[in-house]
Amino acid sequence: MQAAIFETTGDVEVLHVKTVPDPQPGPGEVVVRVEAVGVNRLDLMMREGRVPARPMPHIAGSEVAGTVVAVGAGVTRPLGQRVAVAPYLFCGQCESCLAGHETVCLKGDILGLGSQGGYAEYVVVADHSLIPIPDGVSAEQAAAVTLSTITAWHMLVDKVRIRPGDWVLVWAAGSGVGSAAVQIAKMMGAKVIATAGQPAKVERAMAELGADYGIDYSREDVGLRVRELTQKRGVDVVFEHLGQQTLPTSVRALAREGRIVTCGTLTGNYAEIDVWTLFAKELQIVGSYGGTREDLRQVLQAVAEGRLTPVIDTVWPLTDVQSAHQRMSAREQFGKILLKPTR
């Protein structure tokens, strides 16, 4: 099969497409013919060497949708079924898994991080990680929501449980996870303030995603603007995934008893916050990691019912993987970048 691999870490030139052996399913495993795979910030971090990938040479790609073409021993799933891969892999046997908390599995992994991923014509995964794609949902739409959107869903629906009328601040609304968060928050009846680093992205967040207000964080003081928009009250929830540079502002932007939910550290792992404000206003900072199979089921159903629209920036052939990575590195995208294997 054809796959985009890197044999050493570095800039985009280390990525190249070559022929590698077709994967074979072991007991309890399934081979999926990849119809579409998303490009994620994690893929860039692995390729650059900031996050260790294994094995090497490595095939990245966590956000896979396609068709079942082979099954291993013990698997009864029908050939030809259209499926999306739940990318947060779990053992099903540790104390976290047995308690139903598969995203914090003691042996947890992400497809394409500690295993070969979906930048390829085929990928092998555990059968229990597959979710059928509902009728009316394309492979591109399914791939676009498998990681970023279920992460946002887990944060807003499972962790902080947004209520109708809540004010929600979403950082980087042009990203895959940010664009999903705006839609999910609006679907739940919230008033959304979307931030982005370019005026055009701010406008699109309001015009296309439904955000009520927009802030260009490259030109405006986000904390001050939030106070103006909320009549000095602050927001109930901050959707945080940038980390070091934005967390102090996120704390200042909260109303009393407000909550920050965070899933990322794009700008750095360590941040200083005002601890006095944290306890005096009875604030909460909630960590959230990935999303579950049930989250993916609910997200795909919301797409099928038209309540959620996958935001797809561009679709590239697998052979243009370098260009896709360059677009994400330059932060030019609005929504998800996808790759499609050519056959």
Automatic annotation (TrEMBL):
PANTHER family hit by this protein: QUINONE OXIDOREDUCTASE (PTHR44154)
Organism domain of life: Bacteria
Enzyme Commission code(s) on record: 1.6.5.5
Keywords: NADP, Oxidoreductase
Record bears the keyword Oxidoreductase: yes
Pfam family name, one: ADH_zinc_N
Domain Enoyl reductase (ER): 10-339
Single GO molecular function: quinone reductase (NADPH) activity
InterPro entries hit by this protein: ADH-like_C, ADH-like_N, ER, GroES-like_sf, NAD(P)-bd_dom_sf, Zinc-ADH_QOR/CCCR
Entry-linked Gene3D superfamilies: Medium-chain alcohol dehydrogenases, catalytic domain
Entry annotated with the keyword Glycoprotein: no
Protein name listed in UniProt: NADPH:quinone reductase
